[in-house]
Amino acid sequence: METRHVSVHYTKASWRHRGHYKHRFPKLSAICDTGSHVMTGAVVDRGPRRDVVEFPVLVRQALDRHAFTTLLGDAGYESEKNHRLCREELGVKSIFPTTHRGRGRHDGKPQTIRSPYRKQLHDAFPRTTYGQRWQIETAFSMIKRNLGSALRSRRPFALNREVLLRVITHNLMIIRRLFVFSTE
């Protein structure tokens, strides 16, 4: 008896409904201090989801805990609305790399950027300042290396709580290290 055979009907039926079941996972959006790697703001949500959705809550949470003048973020946070929130309402200089949206022009060039803050960053992007954005990747790596990358919880609420507990534990480990080195 042949055991490796799969019917054509089975393969078509299984691939047809594949898009209906999306794998949801916990998604951490965080703001960290580039000098100490302490996370000053953290929002856990269910992914996949756009970064722009959590941004207003995240930046206000971080500003309530620690004052800062410049905010570096990846292209997922880049929007004119987020630039206005940071610069006009909160008084923070926002630096996100600009992205070209939509179809290009007929001559093959990308569309022109018309939003004032996005255009300003596109024309004169501060590369040396933005070079410190990798510090958040270091903080994420520290969490995974010190506390493990696998989550043990099963339910969404418990997963979100476990991610936030890891952020709190990460911050406590940094504060303890700073306190121990300062007293010696």
Describe this structure in words.
- The protein is of the alpha+beta class and about 180 residues long.
- It has one domain: Nucleotidyltransferase, domain 5, CATH 3.30.420.
- The chain contains 7 helices and 4 strands.
- Strands 1-2 form a two-stranded antiparallel ribbon.
- α2 packs parallel to α3.
- The protein is flat and about 70 Å long.
- The mean pLDDT is about 85.
Task: Give descriptors for this structure.
46% helix; 4 strands; two-stranded antiparallel sheet; 184 residues; 7 helices; 12% strand; flat; Nucleotidyltransferase, domain 5; alpha+beta; two-stranded parallel ribbon
Strands of the widest sheet, in order across it, are 1-2
Give the number of DSSP strands. 4
Nearest-angstrom radius of gyration? 22 Å
CATH architecture: 2-Layer Sandwich
CATH class category name:
Alpha Beta
Mean pLDDT: 87
Helix content: 40-55%
Structural class based on helices, strands and sheet pairing: alpha+beta
Biggest sheet features: 2 strands, antiparallel
Number of domains: 1
The N- to C-terminal Cα distance equals: 74 Å
Query: What is the H-and-E element order?
Result: HEEHEHEHHHH
Outline type = flat
What count of helical segments does DSSP give?
7
In short:
The chain has 184 residues and is α+β, with helices and mostly antiparallel strands.
Topology of this structure?
Blueprint: H1 8-16, E1 25-32, E2 39-47, H2 55-65, E3 70-72, H3 80-90, E4 93-95, H4 116-123, H5 127-130, H6 134-147, H7 156-183
Parallel strand pairs: 3-4
Antiparallel strand pairs: 1-2
Helix pairs in contact: 2-3
